[in-house]
Amino acid sequence: xxxxxxGGLVLIAPMLSFRELCKDYxxxxxxxxEERFPNGARLQKSTTPLLVVHGAKDTVIPPRHGRALYELSxxxxxLVTPPELGHNCDLFSDVQALIAPMLRFFAxxxxxxxxPVVPSWAFDLRSAGxxxxx
Length: 134
Description:
Low-confidence stretches: 128-134
Distance between the termini: 55 Å
Number of helices: 5
Radius of gyration: 22 Å
Strand order of the largest sheet: 1-2-3
Helix content: 25-40%
Shape: elongated
Strand content: 5-15%
Number of strands: 3
Mean pLDDT: 85
């Protein structure tokens, strides 16, 4: 995103950087680890619209990483922290975890968040024959 013109970026359970992740698990060696994923530094250079989804129950990459990346972003941004979502949970089991925020944030066309209301007469079996005959 810092080197390309993108329409948007979605980060799911992201790490701020590899060194920062090491600080969470092995703080004594973190400063000796080569930084291979400076996501925070790169994101500061980007104005690409950003959606960050990081579950509150993530025990692999602490949620502070997602929050920090969200805070570093200079562009339009949205942070979603589903309270029951862990690191390897099914993002599609709850539409509010990823799909709905993504469609709202990126203004996807042709999608409605209102359940359709079908009138009761549409279920009247007496008129079903008329539809089939025409």
